[in-house]
Automatic annotation (TrEMBL):
It comes from Paraburkholderia acidicola. The keyword Hydrolase does not apply. TPR repeats lie at residues 81-114. SMART domains: TPR (SM00028). Pfam families: TPR_16, TPR_19. Transmembrane segments: none annotated. It comes from the Bacteria. The lineage of its organism: Bacteria, Pseudomonadati, Pseudomonadota, Betaproteobacteria, Burkholderiales. This is Uncharacterized protein.
Amino acid sequence: MKPRTLAAAGNASHSLLQAALAAYRQGDMKQAEALCRRVLEQDEHNGIAHNNLANLLRQSGRRSEAKQHYERALVQMPASAEIRSNLAGVLEDLREYDTAEIEYRRALALRPDFVEARFDLGLLLLSAGRYAEGWVYYEARAQVFAEHGTLPFPQWNGEDLTGKSLLLLPEQGYGDTIQFARYAPLLKARGVKTLTMLCKPDIAPLLQTIEGVDEFVTDPGALRMHDYWDSIMSLGCRLGTTPETIPAKIPYVGVFASRLEAWRARLPADGVRVGLVWKGNPDHDNDAERSLRHFSELLPLWSVGGIRFVSLQVGQAEVETETDGTNTQQPIVRLGKEIRDFGDTAAIVAQLNLVICVDTAVAHVAGALGVACWLMLPGVGTDWRWHRSGNQSAWYPKDMYLFRQGPGGRPALIDEVRAALADVMKRD
């Protein structure tokens, strides 16, 4: 979660701190930082100023300095659950995981109803593979995000499902839905008579290929009564999933033959077909770390011969390929603007040899299809599902390889991908 900014009241620094907050909200980070520092010049014991300055420093990547200011804030305000949670967040960024866990637990001891801290602790535990405990804290996301309104029938909490109807509701991103849709056959095996899934129209053509779902609803207004409902990402908790018991029957999605045929002629007829996605959802909290700044960062891959690159990038980012300076002997096939939905994406991916992408929904499409995928993970804020180390995914063990960004940053990460691609082509 984003760090909590504290408001000032009843002290001489109030106006400066309010001005700093206003500058922050207007996107003027430099002015906001300067104002916080002015407060500390006048009063070095101002815990609120230390906290708010630390937030700015963390956002700008100066995490070690941010940690110091959070710690100084806590000297002045040791009973602040918000500051302890903020400190825990930057400790995670710095990979000081044990200390981060301690601070999250201290925050919750101070404020047991602090749902954001519960959610963040859940993510920390899940990323460590501590699923049994992590899922319980992860359930706090329902209060944090409040994605689902009140339904006129109960949420499922593990009751007997024999002969019952169950509605699964999506949450968060498309990738989350694809990842957890694998649980549908397990629910049917528990005796669910009718399993319904609510989803957006553009992901329905992919989800409709999943075994076990009886009905898909793309219009929330068309929902009917069920015996139970549940959030799709609560299924790991409900079914007691551990890293060793993840349902990993791959593939668990498919592609309609008509879609395959429609895209076949658009793909390169020769060479090794490699799909590329370099940007994810720009609204994601960690998008600056997850997405590449520009397509041109991938150009080192063009030094590997025999590859036919295919763009799966949807949205405006595909425009970046139009003046990319790539070798004219290895042009990129731009398909992003023609992709209508995830059914199209799956039909293309199913006919590729490899997908290279940042952490976005296309990785889950490839993983669920059993198509080789090289996933480029950020150095900060890696999603819990990829855990903290290792090159294999417990969720997609068949053909997914994880490239983790290290001290060398993105250039070193992409060079590692280039070297791996060259090695594959050399062996072939």
